[in-house]
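pasting input
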Amino acid sequence: MPPSIAVIAPGAMGSAVAARLVEHGCKVLTSLDGRSAATRTRAAAAGMTAASDAEIAGADIILSIVPPGEALALAEQLATVINRNTKKPVIVDCNAVNVETIRRIADIVLSSGARLVDAAIIGLPPKPGTSGPAFHVSGEAAADVAVLGQLGLDLRLIEGPIGAASALKMSYAGINKGLTGLGAAMVLAATRAGAADALRDELASSAPHIHARLGNALPDMLPKAYRWVAEMREIAGFLGPEHPAAMIYEGFARLFEHLAADVQGQGTEAAQIVAFAERCRAKK
Amino acid sequence: MPPSIAVIAPGAMGSAVAARLVEHGCKVLTSLDGRSAATRTRAAAAGMTAASDAEIAGADIILSIVPPGEALALAEQLATVINRNTKKPVIVDCNAVNVETIRRIADIVLSSGARLVDAAIIGLPPKPGTSGPAFHVSGEAAADVAVLGQLGLDLRLIEGPIGAASALKMSYAGINKGLTGLGAAMVLAATRAGAADALRDELASSAPHIHARLGNALPDMLPKAYRWVAEMREIAGFLGPEHPAAMIYEGFARLFEHLAADVQGQGTEAAQIVAFAERCRAKK
């Protein structure tokens, strides 16, 4: 008998994770109170079951997959309901929050009697035919969710406390999404100065993997830029305000804010980025 | 008869470029006034010829290869001497300066009657058996130094004005050295949080080219970190103070300043970076 699992919320990642668990025979609960018709449709398509807060708190495992800014509030809300129950779930916090935030979440969850696993999802939402994304888990309770590895998730145990998985998520995103940010900033600046073609040629000849990567990563980033703003600020927080590199990630937050506004508005810079990336892909 | 060429200054890049030109039959002048014994030895080993400012100003082509902070002062000094001569050289500014700086240098050089070529050297100093680095050149006078392509330099013409080659240099370094900076910052933060091994494993599995690149780029950066501080500030200036990404490069300047101080001092963070890179190379 597979464990009962709840996934909150049924966003792009949450619903795709739920669909994979459903494929593996799980019943996956979620909360649809006050959600849009589009979200309800997505949750239904993923085979998720609408449930009350009390039912969700009664699941064996609760996966928290929300925008980073909502992770703490969700933990508080869950803890309030769990407090009243005798059965205590394991909450797996999969959110891109920094180490300090996950420690605060741990305090809240543990005080309700539930256990907490720190998790980092690295990769795109599950798709049929792929094994990813990777679910890195850390903390004392990580072994308690090993069953997820038999239910279609690519589970990877980090030997480390609560905070280690979040640190992995922050540092991986800091390199990976940071590189996309550097590419966007420099493509725009080179385009303005008439050096975009020369930049592309030089990357193709002396840094071909970065050239290929930007060809895909730059256009993929544009519709997500608005979400990356908060994620970059989480990374700045992960470094700590006194660290000299924190300024780099505050700069990325402002860059993605600027790009998100351009995508919503004129789209001039977005068009320059897309044009550069298309030529990278054509040259592959 | 090859053109007479002067290279200022005989640093690591300048002397290696000079050595390649000398191999191809050129006489290469340089200024050794007030230079250290080590510099004089390096210039002699490269086959360079000590010359007065007046002799240098009389060369056909003058390559300016100095730290970015000295580029403007060198242009002023050369222009003062050239002003008095009837023969006017082509000055090739190879420095990592931003577009605004190269335009100021153009004003200074053109007012002396000399021509200016904007050049970007991308790659390590010439070594026997290699064809690099690439010398990208832009500006109206770029065609006037095409001969350098027959004298052992990998010359690449950019169709663009003064500023295009500098923009290429800034944008390429902004991606390339920026990536190394992101790697250093995130390796240190992951190490502090006990997630360095997990970060390395995840990079090896989902971003193998970045993993391989950091294995080499991180230790190579440490002894140069002090030089990258000014270069990052040039890139911030290239973006312009009002651009949201300028903050990213001011952050990199502070990070490299911090790392350079660590290299000179305790070396604690340098050791963590080196340890990570060694494990990347071992896993290759």
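fyi Chain B touches chain A through 64 residues (CB under 8 Å).
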